[in-house]
Amino acid sequence: MGRLARAADRMPRATFVHFGLAACAACTAPPPAQTPSASSAPATATTASSGGEIFDFPDVTGSPRALARTPEDLAPFFELCRQGDAALSRVAERFARRQSEGGAPLDVSEISFALRAEGSPYVWPRAWTLEGGDLQAPAAAERMRGWLQGFQDGGERRCGVALVSEGERSVLAAVAVDALADLAPLPVRQRAGSWLDVDAQLLVPATDAKVIVLGPSGAPYAVPTTFDGQRVRARFRADRPGPFLVQLLASVAGGPRPVLEATVYADVPPPRSFSGDPAPGEPATPLRPEADRAQALLEMVNKARATEQSPPLERDAALDAIAQSHAEAMRRLKRIAHDAGDGDPRSRVQAAALDILAAGENVAHALDVARAHRALWASPSHRENLLEPRFDKVGIGIALDSDGSIWVCEVFADTPAQPR
User: Fold this and answer.
1) What would the pLDDT profile of 16-56 be if each residue is shown by its tens digit?
2) Rounded CA gap, 29 and 356, in Å?
3) Which of 99, 386, 59 lies closest to 219, judged by CA?
4) Crossing angle, helix 108-117 and helix 86-100, to 10 degrees?
5) Higher pLDDT pick, 338 / 204
6) CA 143 to mean position of chain CA atoms
7) Is the separation of the CB atoms in 366 and 406 below 8 Å?
8) For residue 136, what pLDDT is reported?
9) Percent of the chain whose pLDDT exceeds 70
10) How many Å apart are CA 308 and CA 310, to the nearest integer?
11) Average pLDDT of the residues in 168-192
12) How far is residue 259's CA from residue 379's CA, in Å, rounded to a whole number?
């Protein structure tokens, strides 16, 4: 997302980024699916040194975070959402302040980190800024309305809005989510060896739900979970020092996807700033324009698998065809989904009449393959597929969009051993 210079004699200009993530764990054959992240306009990767923001995590992660009051000058913008959220507003303020001071814009991964640092478990945050002209005029609210109408992830629309002025430069920012679930307060800091209870309430119909935990090292794992159609309860043990990423995965309309995330820090302090560490296998330098994106992604996946002693994957032409067709279907739909009007992963694999024992799928919308890989690695349910040792084949599909972003589909498979 590029910054836009202020021009008082012009209409306000808008920029926006969005971050999406959906997934399902590796499953028995034929498969279900998985998904990661996105930015619909070029965004600059940021680090703690680029902005210098200091974060102070609260005691608990939970939602919603009610606004103490709605600022009168921002009321027309909050009215565009069903509910204002204090954590989203604080992230919007950081977003606006960074841009108003001429700093690098918040990367989509930094927006998600900021949400966690504000004690919010929301996923799929989307951000928007407006700069120049009269930011409190009705036309500005109409611009925001148009942005909000451009996406629909289901659930309850919640927003945070902030207006920041630095000298002659003013920036209006909004951060929005479509919340599919709410999380009861979960401690951010805990003693190693302690048991923690996860308690969440689905806001949309779901057929299944489970909690996945990613500890300080090793592969992610599912923990015992109960689900009565609305309420989800689970328990896990923070068995050693370090961060534990907790993800609630639910099967909702469109397929399985993460609906909540939180991090518990056992006997270690939460980070004070965003690091933006690359994922294992991520290249140190950007790919050349002429590079084979699919081959580059395969190399990232196999290097990541090597860090956990999972055997390398071999690309398969039939799986490539399934993955490419689905990547193009998502591009047409303009939405990351396991069913983009072309059938769910199970039906697509069955239609191809492939001889497989088990399969899984990761899907993503991102600026480039490195960011797609990083987002998938950061998600516990995606990492399950990336590291699953029984998978031996993979198909990779990448569809380039008109805005320069890419739609990615990875189809993993466990195939029968061939006779010698």
Assistant:
1) 333 333 332 222 222 222 222 222 232 222 333 334 678 99
2) 7
3) 386
4) 130
5) 204
6) 25
7) yes
8) 72
9) 86
10) 6
11) 94
12) 12
Specify the pLDDT at position 41: 30
Strands 126-131, 13-18: parallel, antiparallel or unpaired by DSSP? Answer: antiparallel
φ, ψ (nearest 5 deg) of residue 252? -120, -175
As a whole number of angstroms, the distance between CA 177 and CA 128 comes to 12
3-state SS record for the chain? CCCCCCCCCCCCEEEEEECCCECCCCEECCCCCCECCCCCCCCCCCCHHHHCCCCCCCCEECCCCCCCCCCHHHHHHHCCCCEECHHHHHHHHHHHHHHHCCCCCCCHHHHHHHHHHCCCCCCCCEEEEEECCCCCCHHHHHHHHHHHCCCCCCCEEEEEEEEEEECCEEEEEEEEEEECEEECCEECEECCCCEEEEEEEECCCCCEEEEEEECCCCCCEEECEEECCCEEEEEEECCCCEEEEEEEEEEECCEEEEEEEEEEEECCCCCCCCCCCCCCCCCCCCCCCCCCHHHHHHHHHHHHHHCCCCCCCEECHHHHHHHHHHHHHHHHHCCCCCCCCCCCHHHHHHHCCCCCCEEEEEEEEECCHHHHHHHHHHCHHHHHHHHCCCCCEEEEEEEECCCCCEEEEEEEEECCCCCC
**pLDDT for 64:** 96
Q: What is the pLDDT of residues 201-250, one digit of tens each?
A: 999 999 999 999 999 988 889 999 999 999 999 999 999 999 999 999 99
Between CA 12 and CA 363 the distance in angstroms is 34
- State the Cα–Cα distance between residues 16 and 151, nearest whole angstrom: 12
More confident residue, 34 or 377: 377
